[in-house]
Amino acid sequence: MANAGDPIAMSKTFDPLIRPVFDEAIRSLRLPRGSHGLDAGCGVGLQAMMLAEAVGPDGHVTGVDLSVESVECGESLVRDAGLSDRLSFRQGNVTALPFEDDAFDWAWSAHCIGYAAAIEPVAAVRELARVVRPGGRVILFAWSSERLLPGFPELEARLGATTAGLAPFENTLPPERHFSRTLGWFRTVGLREPAVHTLVGDAHAPLDADIRLALATLFEMRWPDVETELTPEDNALFRRLCDPASAEFIVDHPDYAAWFTCTMFSAGATDE
Fold first, then answer.
1. Secondary structure (DSSP) of 223-251
2. pTM (2 d.p.)
3. What is the longest distance spanned by two Cα atoms in the chain?
4. Is 199 helix (H, G, I), strand (E, B) or coil?
5. Can you tell me the distance from the alpha carbon of 200 to that of 144, in angstroms, rounded to the nearest whole number?
6. 3-class SS at 112?
7. What per-residue confidence (pLDDT) applies to 239?
8. Fold type of domain 7-268
9. Which residue has the higher pLDDT, 102 or 117?
10. In the predicted model, is pLDDT for residue 116 greater than 50?
11. What is the average per-residue pLDDT within 234-263?
12. In this structure, are residues 110 and 49 in contact, taking their beta carbons and an 8 Å threshold?
């Protein structure tokens, strides 16, 4: 695949598939028009731009990412989208945010905290809570499950048990570091009124070219380098079903249907 090894290009290619789920999640938050928010671990800023649209022309979103390359790419995308007046970027670490206390009305982080093994989640959530004003909200969002190979549940189960399939929840990490334990991080930090919302995305035949490519990208993102952990028989089947160049590429089946879930946790900053 042309985007292999390029996380920025892959995220853009994957965007058409997951964008409707992000759109539903952001609409459900009802972010106040004119509010100022933070996107921590923003990547190239695709969700930051959606957040900026949600808060309107009088609002502002600041994106923070550790990768200088992602920040520079995000700045270029934002200029092209005409959103520079309401969206800016900073290079920085989510566990040591370069902002004063109470700087934002809300903080959002997607596919970052609880998703990047190197980030200590309680420390990161504590930082988000620090920079959110009393009464504001902290929001974490991440991919939580998928069913992508209809008719092949055993193969998909075995793929899910590979190192890549389990990622980012490595066996070496304790259970409390798992994204699904976010409520515990909120409780430890002292956030209040927690809420959990799981959203479903789907794709089914007939597929347009963008969604077909997004699904191919998803297979590559979700199950990279699994060959050594599969039996030769499973590996051969995996390649036949998940290689876009294969005559048996499952996405091209006339009955193809897939779905996935993303889960959003949110809680309020204390008034203390």
1. STT-GGGS-HHHHHHHHHHH-TTSTT-GG
2. 0.93
3. 61
4. strand
5. 10
6. coil
7. 96
8. Rossmann fold (3.40.50)
9. 102
10. yes
11. 97
12. no
Residue 129 is encoded by which pair of tokens? 């809570």
254: buried, middle or exposed (CB in 10 Å: 19+, 13-18, 0-12)? exposed
Q: In this predicted structure, what is the pLDDT of residue 171?
A: 65
Neighbours of 63 (CB within 10 A): 31
- Report the candidate in 111, 123, 125, 114 with the shortest Cα–Cα distance to residue 173: 114
Q: Which of 3-7, 25-29, 102-106, 217-221 has the lowest mean pLDDT?
A: 3-7
Identity of the residue numbered 5: G
For the ranges 42-46, 81-85, 147-151, the one whose mean pLDDT is highest: 147-151
Q: Round to whole Å and give the CA distance between 207 and 109.
A: 30
User: Is residue 188 within 8 Å of residue 123, measured between CB atoms?
Assistant: no
Domain ranges of the chain: 7-268
**Backbone phi, psi, residue 57, to 5°:** -65, -20
**Encoded amino acid at 119, one letter:** I
